[in-house]
Amino acid sequence: MLDRELKKGSAELLILSLVEHEPRHGYELSKLIDARSNGAIRFHVASLYPLLYRLEKRGWIEGRWVEKAGQRRRRYYRLTAEGRRVLAAQRRNWRQFVEAIARITGVEYA
Amino acid sequence: MPDEVEDGTRRDWAAEITRRLAGLRLGPEDEAALADELAAHLEDRYRELRARGLHDEEARQAVIAELDADDGLTARLAGVVGRGSPSTPVLGATRGGRLLTHVAQDAKYALRAMRRSPGFTAIALVTLALGIGAATTIFSVTNGVLLAPLPYRTPHELLTFWGTAPEKGLPVVDFPSGLFVPVRDSSRAFVSMTAFEREGFTLTGAGDPVRVDAAGVSSDFFRVFGTAPALGRTFLPDDASSDGFPVTVISHALWQRQFGGDSSVVGRTINLNGNPSTVVGVMPPAFAMPDDALLWVPLPLDPSRFNCWCLSVVGRMKPGVTVADARRDLIRTVDDFAVSRPDVFPNAKPGNTRIIAMPLARQLVGDVRTPILVLLAAVAVLLLIACANIANLLLARATARTREMAVRCCLGASPRRIATQLLTESSMIAAAGAAIGLALTVVAVRLVRRLPPSDLPRIDQVKVDGMVVLFAIAVMTLCAMLFGLAPAIRASRVDLQTNLKDGARGSASVRARRVSDAFVVIQVALSLVLLAGAGLLGRSFQRLVAIDPGFRAENVLIARLQPPYPRYDSDTVVRQFYDRVLERAAAIPGVRAVGLNMRAPFTRGNPQDNIIAEGHEPKPGEPVLVANTRYVTPGYFAAIGTPILQGRGFTEADDALSLRVTVVDETLARRYWPKGDAVGKRVKHQGDTVAGGWMTIVGVAPNVRHASLGEEPSLQVYEAFAQRTPWTMYLVVRAASDPEALLPALRAQVAAVDPMIPLYEVSTMETAVSRSLVTRRLTNMLLGAFAMAAFVLAAIGIYGVISIGVAARTREFGVRMALGARAADVSTLVLRRGVWLAGAGIAIGLAGAIWAVRFLRGLLFGVSAFDVPTFTIATAALAAVALLACVIPARRATQADPLTALRAE
Question: Could you point out which of B48, B177, B335, B835 has its C-alpha 20 to 30 Å from the C-alpha of A19?
Fold first, then answer.
């Protein structure tokens, strides 16, 4: 698993990216992170939801209760306009950061 | 069902979450929404883990663990949501709060654990409920009969006493008024003393004539007990009269029954045996001295009379006086008096007096004390066995849950916390068991109270009261400790490294196995003690009912009659009355034989007298033999079914004018005329100074048991009713079939002779005999049931422990068999452990039983406390069942498939 600090720094970016194109609920997010990172990054409830609430509080994402027939209601999060701007900025920062690291350490950016 | 499960788990998730949110001071809506969202997540995660093959509890633990990962939800949410700041004290930060939360959490968890294994829960609950129910029931009997104080003022000061002369065959010698008065007046240990005598009256003037048990009592009787009347007054010193009974105090029961609780009863005149008597008082319901008295009349005490040794005495000791002090004082007083009156006590010497004194409460309880205490001990043993069983079940479960406990430990639960958790679980099982047990007790006590009061003294005191509930709670606590402690201690010693290793799952440590083994050994040992005890009592009972009472009880009805004085004022009119009753009774269709006896066997009271055999007169200072004296009509022997062994019975020719004759029993005949030539010899009453006092023996009858089958045969002398006529007689009717069917006809015939004379103490002879066995039968039944239960529990215990052992060693057995061990080798391995456990248990049990049976001695009849067959059978039965309990798991062990066993790893 990734180092904790590393994970912490990247967490906001991960969430914002995942809700960029479609609204997703918390569990779905944790599953996607797990699956796409091949298990390298995991968010459990105890860290995921506080993060989501923090992002929501900042106005970057917006949660909405959705009820579907035969299922329990879930809260779906979508990106706000503000969130979209933050995401773009963070993506840029992250790329610069990774490239800088790569130049120093010789680690290839995938 | 699935919906229910889902609901249940969702609720659980929400609760887990809400608890963690408590410190955040969220608004209720925010909190609910948050909980809802997180619960959905947890449920999804749980399902995912289950789908991956985790067990329910593992998945649950994992999910909860995630909830608390990364510093935990609470800490992370603080500052993000709600009004609280990060420094807000979060859940459980205060000590008390934490404790409370833990208890609630533990309780909830325990409930869930119980729900999750209904089989275990059911077995534990049923075992406990029955155990605690039985214990509490026996305790409520103990409490009511032995422990509850008598309903009189400072009851521990009340002492009852009587003389004893075992060398004359008289274990109990009551007081004559001539002795009572000086003892009362000169003893120093007593504040007051009263004498009383049982009476029986035919009560008229209040509805149909009824027969009532009563007591003639000295005037300070009620003051000695310290009981004030509920209505009116009790007796005054000048109430006593040698001529009839001018005044009466009635019991609450009689007041309700005959007078409808009418308070104008005081001052009313009733008729006792045809004599007018004024009711002056009504006693409160609790007053029951002597036990079945329904009314009391004043008893004149004549200090010059020594002819009736028939007074029972109760004294109130001065405060601080002990029973032994009082007894010494009484002996001194009686000695002094006896020496001063050589006219009455010609052989008196100081130190000759023997007196038995005991607290009244003890005497009232009488014979049932030992059985009750034995049953209480037995039920305690049973409860111990039950606890051992549950402890083993819990241990087995704890073993299966080792991993769960280890996970909890990893997540930060302290060993103490886990132990508390497990103790909570066992406490809750104990509490539920106690609750059901208490409910069973309520039912059982209701059944016990249906017993007739004559079978169990003070039965009205047997109830489920505060003491009983307290006892149940104490037992419950003790049980929870007994069966909860071992698993809790074991769990708190969780060794993380070993237990988290996959292979360790479900296998018990050596120490845990030893504890289980010890429990089983204890169970077997205790069961053997109970089995041996129950066996001894059972054999005693067999011996007892096999005894020939000297008569044939089947199809016999007995009923008592008393022609009232003064309407019947001479032997002649009394005899005429009885002759007519016998004649009419004999004519009833279905009657085979009728007769009269002054005291039918197995009825209360036993008239006795000093009897002297001609040629065997005792020398001065030698004790005179005492025999039961019975006055019977010629038809009596046929009616009761007592054969005449030698000579003849009585005939109509044996009347007041002819030679006085007697039939004696073989005990007396053999005692004086061992060669079998008693017929023709003569005996007489010691005090009979009339010239014709000698009675010629015309026949010999077998010994008849008079009060109980187990009693020592006493000497008996029958005399002809026509030659000596008591007023009160038992009518004995032998019927062709069901004797009770004759009762209406019998009543009608007696009423036809005299409508004012009721039949009373009506009973079949069989009932009378079996009544004498009630306590014993009840004790046997209960002890037998306890022993059976113990037996079954021990068998289950062994089975369980061996089974678990086999299950844990499946792999080992598989490997052994793969390496060439034969089935027989493997089953021997299993059986060896069973035999060892059972053997150890039996050895300890035998030692325990040999120690414990001493307490049964008083209850045994015709068997030694160390009866070898009983012990052998009990041991063999237990060994057989123990072996059987091992055979099944042993067979299972041999079926261990090496492949499966290894693959399971």
Answer: B48
Distance CA B520, CA B802 (A): 10
Nearest CB to B69; choose among A30, A44, A65: A44
Of B37, B43, B72, the CB nearest to A46: B72
Locate the domains of chain B by residue range: 2-93, 155-318, 369-544+774-903, 563-756
What is the tens place of the pLDDT at every residue in B196-233?
Answer: 998 888 888 777 778 888 999 998 899 999 999 999 99
CA distance A19 to A87: 10
Residue B202: both structure tokens together: 């035919």
Per-residue pLDDT tens over the stretch B567-584: 888 889 999 999 999 999
Distance from the Cα of A103 to chain B's closest Cα (Å) equals 32
Please indicate whether, in this complex, the C-beta atoms of A53 and B42 are within 8 angstroms of each other. no
pLDDT of residue B5: 46
pLDDT for the residue B682: 93
Domain A4-65+73-105 has CATH 3.40.50.300: no
Q: Give the dihedral of Cα atoms B607, B613, B618, B624; nearest 10 deg.
A: -10
**pLDDT, average across residues B733-750:** 94
The set of long-range contacts for B759-762, using a CB threshold of 8 Å and a minimum separation of 24, is B759/B559, B759/B560, B759/B561, B759/B731, B760/B200, B760/B210, B760/B211, B760/B559, B760/B560, B760/B561, B761/B211, B761/B558, B761/B559, B761/B560, B761/B603, B761/B730, B762/B557, B762/B558, B762/B559, B762/B560
Q: pTM of the predicted model, to two decimals?
A: 0.68
Q: Helix or strand or coil: residue B535? A: helix
Chain B residue whose CA is closest to A45: B67
3-state helix, strand, coil in chain A (%, to 5): 60, 15, 30
CA-CA distances (angstroms) from residue B590 to B459, B560, B594, B636, B641?
38, 20, 11, 17, 16
Map residue B374 onto helix, strand or coil.
helix
Domain-wise residue ranges, chain A: 4-65+73-105
* Contacts (Cβ under 8 Å, ≥6 apart) of B721: B575, B578, B596, B598, B631, B632, B633, B729
What tokens appear for B37 in the block?
A: 């969202």
Query: Which runs of E-coded beta strand occur in B311-403?
Result: 312-317, 355-359
Chain A CA closest to residue B38 = A45
Query: Residue B84: what pLDDT?
Result: 38
Alpha-carbon dihedral of residues A73, A74, A75, A77, nearest 10 degrees?
-130
DSSP class of residue B463 equals: -
Task: Tell me the C-alpha distance between B626 and B736, whole Å.
Answer: 36
Nearest of B879, B878, B886 to residue B791 by alpha carbon: B878
Q: Please give the average per-residue pLDDT across B383-398, as a whole number.
A: 83
Could you give the CA distance from residue B68 to residue B406 in angstroms, rounded to a whole number?
16
Strand duo A24-25 + A74-79: pairing? antiparallel
Could you give the 3-state DSSP secondary structure of residue B245?
Answer: coil
How many A/B residue pairs have CB atoms within 8 Å?
61
CA distance B212 to B235: 19
Largest CA distance in chain A: 54
Supply B366's token pair: 């009488």
> How many whole angstroms separate alpha carbon B438 and alpha carbon B48?
45
Q: Which tops the pLDDT comparison, B638 or B77?
A: B638
* A74-79: strand order across its sheet: A24-25, A74-79, A61-66
Cβ pair B234, B249 in contact under 8 A: yes
Q: How many CB atoms lie within 10 A of CB B600?
A: 28
- Judging contacts by C-beta atoms under 8 Å, the chain A residues touching residue B80 are 50, 53-54, 57
The ipTM value here is: 0.86
The whole-angstrom separation of Cα B875 and Cα B774 is: 29
**Cα–Cα dist B780/B534, whole Å:** 7
